[in-house]
User: Fold Dehydrogenase from Emticicia aquatilis.
Amino acid sequence: MKKNIKWGIIGVGKIAEKFATDLKSVKNAQLHAIASSSSLERAKDFAERYDAPYFYDSYESIFQTPDLDAIYIATPHTSHAENTLLCLKHKVPVLCEKPFAMNLKQVQTMVEAARENDTFLMEAMWTRFIPAIQKTLDLIAEGRIGKVRNVQADFGFNAPFLPEKRLLNPNLGGGALLDIGIYPAYLSLLLLGYPSDIQVISNFGETGIDETTSFVLGYKNEATANLSCTLKARTLTEALIYGENGYIHIEGRFMEAKRITLFETDKKPVKFNFPRKTFGYNFEIEEVSQCVREGKKESSKMPLSISVKLISLLDEIRQKAGIIYEGID
Assistant:
């Protein structure tokens, strides 16, 4: 079994820098190569700052790298499918940043390519691997709050008006839902499964993207989820999971939480703390690195079937809200 996993990164934006920073904290994993589509200088600068021996000015060139074990894709949403398919063609394991792609059709193509090339693929939903979230799942499995009846989660901040940047640019997959609404959507999917009813309201900005999207999900077991995302206001960005015998509070920002509190009926609240010095990407890096060592083709915690369900849910929400990406949908 290979011990040391050598990583490549495609894309040199802010999230790539956070990933590279956390990669340094992971035992038996290291940054090996970096590729930028904009300039060799940017790739070289990134490589020097994060101690990568190889750097390139095109994504295709990264496959020249010897002993490349896995690639993290940190490009804009609209490039995820194309970049993933390129890696899979070269049979290099892939961790692709969320959202996996822009729609179900693209995700299905990615999944098929991973299976045809017998190559590992996972969506970078770091939330699934955060210890606070795992503890939340454990408490629910233990029956501490009884059957889950309602999930409430939000994510919001007041984004500066920079229409050329990715967040507000529809040509780069901008908008609240795909960028940050995916987190409340994923939490509901993780805890309650796929909904039987979806109600949505969106407000649109002058660039055409959804600035605010609120959605209520209903389930055949009579559970509900009240979820929202916005680029126009700073919200608590927390989650509350209500069960028949209590509830769990996941403190903000819930998708990367360090603290949760368990409230059981007629008992004193119990706090659980998970301090760390990293951004939190190290947990998903550890998962993928171990999967690659063991020769697995997908993660049991974040399997491809979940990514298919998540993008299906986002597609349904977009359809009901009227969120359209010209040239993609």
Observations:
- The first helix runs from residue 14 to 23.
